Amino acid sequence: MSTERGGELDLEYERDDRPPWPKSLLLGLQHVAVMIVPATAVAYIVADGVGLGAGETAYIVQMILLFSGLATVIQAYTIGPVGAKLPLVMGTSFTFVGAITTIGAEFGMAAVFGAVLVTGFVVEGLIGWQFDRIEPFFPPLVTGLVVVIIGLYLIPTGMEYAAGGAGADDFGATHNVGLAALVLAIAVVLNLFTRGVARLLSILAAIVVGYAVAVPLGMVDFSPIFDAAWIAVPSPTRYGFEFEPIAIVTFAFLFLVSAMETVGDMSGVTAVEGRSPDEDEVRGGLFTDGIVSSIGSIFATFPVTTFSQNVGIVSFTGVMSRHVVAVSGVILAALGLSPRVGAVVTTIPSAVFGGAVLLMVGMVAASGVRLIILHTELDRRNMVIVAVSLGLGLGIATTPEAIQGLPPAAQTFFGEPVILTALSALVLNTFVPGEQSPLFDEAALESVTPSTIDPSND
């Protein structure tokens, strides 16, 4: 394990190092193993909420793996200005789950992919180009609250899965709850009481055990696997495109939030070298987010962004080699070309996924809390911002009918907990004087001139 020295880690392999091929393959597989479950869980949750069949779910999983792999390779090696030349593993984010589900159910998946096609390229491209001007509006208080609400409002979804899935005939049955509890317990024990690979792969190991237990209980249907082909070429415009204004506005705001997460992950990676990402790295990383998301929407994949848990692997192992991450990208892309891989995910019982999803979304919320606590003084001003933002976000998540009197477009936009929380935090933090305000804090600093400083107070 790497050690820290003066803010910089002693790296086993630096950014441009090329480990031997056997080691690169194993290290790349480790990255894939850590991200594949949460990435495919996003597809599983959305498919259930929108009402997609097993075949459609398997195809979306296939596309998620394919474009996650392509985006990962681009981040490692770049294409022109696109890519950061950093070890960033890409995948689908929980940030977009609520909006995809809501808009997909109301307007259809064509509206989802139409909105991603437009906003991915335009919004993240603009942010990458003008990042220095936008960054001050998204300090840790704002981004931390967004991460917290993403985790919290998905907890009921995890509980539904743990009980067997909404609408299931055996919802809440002992075998469902027991299976979810087993998966959760194994993941927690491995994460807290083991080290090395066992800890890093704790969630994956728990799902494998849960799946193995579910098979003799008759809870697994293998038919989707045998019905799927080994190899298939992606089919563009599978769902078509529709351009609903409210869907475009909603995804534009969420891409803004996602961009801040990506910058945070880039900062986490470069921190092992004792530095922050430079302008070209930030711009290239955000361009990859947006452009690959837009291109991926043509083939029916959800927006891709950086995966924080893989940033943790870089710090933990001391392996910063972008070539290792490129290997993981090639593996993901290869898996994405096989429908049978996607079909395997659809056979996992809801209860097994429930135990894992509960832990994953809980960890998302916990990481948001950590981000706030480490970088924000919880004084009266900031406590009020936290209270209002989380109150509104959780309020709309638990009682969506509270705004049923608004026009349909407003219901769709303000009915998203992530948007309501982010918008509240952004507005309050910007216009209320305080340390993290991009407006008033700067004005306060400029007002402190030499003539106003009393040396006797030193």
UniProtKB/TrEMBL annotation:
Keywords: Cell membrane, Membrane, Transmembrane, Transmembrane helix, Transport. The chain crosses the membrane at residues 25-47, 59-79, 86-105, 111-129, 136-155, 175-193, 200-219, 239-257, 324-345, 351-373. It comes from the Archaea. GO terms for cellular component: plasma membrane. The keyword Cell membrane applies. Its main location: membrane. One of its GO terms (molecular function) is xanthine transmembrane transporter activity. Pfam families: Xan_ur_permease. It is a multi-pass membrane protein. It is found in: Cell membrane. Belongs to the nucleobase:cation symporter-2 (NCS2) (TC 2.A.40) family. PANTHER family: PURINE PERMEASE C1399.01C-RELATED, URIC ACID TRANSPORTER UACT. This is Xanthine permease.
